[in-house]
Design a protein that fits this description.
alpha/beta, 5 strands
Length: 191
Amino acid sequence: MKVVGIAGSLRAKSNTLHYVKTALNVLGQNGFETDLISLRGKEIKPCNGCYDCVEKGCCTIQDDDFEETLDQMRDAEGLILGSPVYLSSVVPQMMSLLARATFVAYWNDKFFSGKVGGPITVARRAGHNLAFSQLLLWFFINGITVPGSTYWNVGMAGTGGARDAEKDEEGLATVTHFASNMACLMRQVFV
């Protein structure tokens, strides 16, 4: 079984990437194949509402990294979405990916339904819960089961370098517990 983790930060030294890697490491230690996708260096254009996905998939928008990323998401049994929080919301590049992915999945056999996954949000001080809720709504509308943890999967960091994330013992413990629960749930769902 495969789990794909997507980090939405565009920073080279990303705290969000550190939290997503932490979760994937736990899943890897539990025998799952893992893939990490960083949206840094990728271009995902926003959905233009053309509804071509009803018949063909998302093919009106060309020349970006959406199809490759969507294929990796479609092939996985588990999905982890990590987003930094700058203005109390999920970053635009992540929302572009999720909006287009939802439309394509919805009109093409709802292929996300039945997967397992969850969100991770990272902020300096506040805004986690709004962004966390946005990602939860994405998981729920796509029929993806979300396991819990000991707290919400939020990390405290803010200088744009993994050194902040490494100091957040509670956040890392929460993400580790979430990933352990995800591994347990995936074994039960997919066996």
